[in-house]
């Protein structure tokens, strides 16, 4: 199984989805946003902040 990375069109939010234990374990969802003060420029380095981690 491969993790899924979803990024919105303006590249300010991202969601990572995956399943533990080779697809047999819990589902995990991690939501990230650009940290405050981080520029939206494509060439500038990004600093991401984890908003939530949900495991089912």
Please describe the biggest sheet, giving its number of strands, its sense, and whether it closes into a barrel.
4 strands, antiparallel
Radius of gyration: 13 Å
Q: Give the strand content.
A: over 45%
* Mean model confidence by pLDDT: 90
Global structural class: mainly beta
Number of strands: 4
Instruction: Report how far the terminal alpha carbons are from each other.
Output: 17 Å
Blueprint (SSEs and pairs):
Elements: E1 4-7, E2 13-19, E3 27-34, E4 48-55
Antiparallel strand pairs: 1-2, 2-3, 3-4
Write a short abstract of this structure.
This protein is mostly beta strands and 56 residues long. It is built from no helices and 4 strands.
Describe what you observe in this structure.
With 56 residues, the protein is mostly beta strands. It contains no helices and 4 strands. A 4-stranded antiparallel β-sheet has the order 1-2-3-4, with no helix packed on it. The two termini are 17 Å apart.
Task: Give short descriptive properties of this protein.
4 strands, single chain, 56 residues, 4-stranded antiparallel beta sheet, mainly beta, elongated
């Amino acid at each position: 199984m491969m993790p899924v990375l979803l990024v919105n069109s303006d590249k300010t939010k991202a969601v990572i989805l995956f399943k533990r234990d080779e697809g047999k374990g819990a589902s995990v969802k991690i939501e990230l946003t650009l940290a405050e003060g981080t520029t939206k420029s494509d060439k500038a380095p990004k600093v991401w902040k984890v908003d939530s981690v949900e495991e089912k």
